Amino acid sequence: MVAARGYDSDPLVAARSTCTVIPPRRKRRHPRAYDVARYAQRHPVERLFSRLKQFRRVATRYDKLDAHFLAFVQLATTVLWLRDC
């Protein structure tokens, strides 16, 4: 699980059976170790979601069927990819 500092709580981290990559809060008495490189990989994914939300149809989820929504997300990512080239 990769999350922001706001999700750094002992019960949440202990409840997950996955490897958590959450940086500890600054005011923790006993900060735990985390993988800085894996946490840095989260940034491009968040930027992509931010750019996808610029498409109104993705942000508001007008499509009722999952297949239609997924198709438009794929189309939007293709448009973003072509725009960056």
Mean pLDDT: 82
Order of helices and strands: HHHHH
Domain unit count: 2
Percent in helix? 40-55%
Give the overall form.
elongated
The count of DSSP E runs of length 2 or more, i.e. the number of strands, is: 0
Radius of gyration based on Cα positions: 17 Å
How would a textbook summarize the main sheet? none
- Which structural class should the secondary elements be placed in? mainly alpha
Give the termini distance in whole angstroms: 31 Å
What is the helix tally? 5
Strand content: under 5%
Poorly predicted regions = none
Please give a structural write-up.
The chain has 85 residues and is mainly α. It folds into two domains: 5-40, no CATH class; 42-84, no CATH class. 54% of the residues lie in helices and 0% in strands. The chain contains five helices and no strands. The chain has helices at 10-15, 36-40, 42-52, 56-60, 66-84. The longest helix has 19 residues, at 66-84. The chain is elongated. It starts with 9 loop residues before the first helix and ends with a helix. The mean pLDDT is 82.
